[in-house]
Amino acid sequence: MKFLTAGESHGRGLLGIVDGIPAGLEVAEDYIGVQLARRQMGHGRGGRMKIEKDWAEIWCGVRYGQTLGAPIGLIVRNKDW
């Protein structure tokens, strides 16, 4: 599995590409959202991290909640941009 990222936290948003995931696995944006919310309670969090609500949008590689075997593209937009 490979994980690539692009962008910066104070820019327009962050992009992620996850490659090497087999087809047929269940993936839900809601589950990813729960995991991102856990990050807000982590070590070293700042004041902005407590109020910002990150949400990952799945752009490609998943259809009807299942992986396709193609790279999975995700975007986390910066609402303050």
UniProtKB/TrEMBL annotation:
Pathway: Metabolic intermediate biosynthesis; chorismate biosynthesis; chorismate from D-erythrose 4-phosphate and phosphoenolpyruvate: step 7/7
Group of enzyme by EC: lyase
GO molecular function, one term: chorismate synthase activity
E.C. designation(s): 4.2.3.5
Gene Ontology biological process terms in this record: amino acid biosynthetic process; aromatic amino acid family biosynthetic process; chorismate biosynthetic process
Sorted UniProt keywords: Amino-acid biosynthesis, Aromatic amino acid biosynthesis, Lyase
Record keyword Transmembrane present: no
Gene Ontology cellular component terms for the protein in this record: cytosol
InterPro entries per UniProt: Chorismate_synth, Chorismate_synth_AroC_sf, Chorismate_synthase_CS
Family of the protein in this entry: Belongs to the chorismate synthase family.
PANTHER family: CHORISMATE SYNTHASE
Protein's UniProt name: chorismate synthase
Source organism of this protein record: marine metagenome
